[in-house]
Amino acid sequence: MISRFLSLLVIVWALGFAVFAITLPRPAGDAMTDAVVVLTGGAGRLERGLDLLARHRARRLFLSGTDRTVRKKELAARTGRPQALFDCCVDLGKDSVDTRSNAKETAQWLGAHRFRSVRLITTDWHMPRAHHDLAAATRGLGVTILVDAVPSHPSFTTLFTEYQKYLLRRAAAPFGY
């Protein structure tokens, strides 16, 4: 009886992993949102957010998880974007260290600006957990989240690890973690 139950759990876990890997989120369209939030750490994320901001698809961009030593001037030079774009419309979040604290930092920023819609940009394999955490952190703020995943080619190890993290976040969420 116990072995059957454990076998069932393994099968459900394996099917869940297959669905997770096959149904990674895709890039969003060109819809307008109040804000764009970019989670640092992956190729193409910042460029995607800046492109949307430059094309007036959002009013402001929040870059969550930046190193405390990073300055807007350096980002403008690195990305080849005008300094004026950073000065007017980009905010740097320097208090987060992981996905969960990205969500808390972002929720505070969204609330302070009273934004009602946000485009969340992160890598495709990271999006399920990032979206889950941001949705939990913004509960009660009335914020609509548009998922905009940057495509990647994750390794099996990356997908496997991220799936475990996602499952743990989902399991811990009802307990306030």
From TrEMBL:
Residues 34-152 form the DUF218 domain. It holds the Pfam family DUF218. InterPro entries: DUF218. This is YdcF family protein. It comes from Sphingomonas morindae.
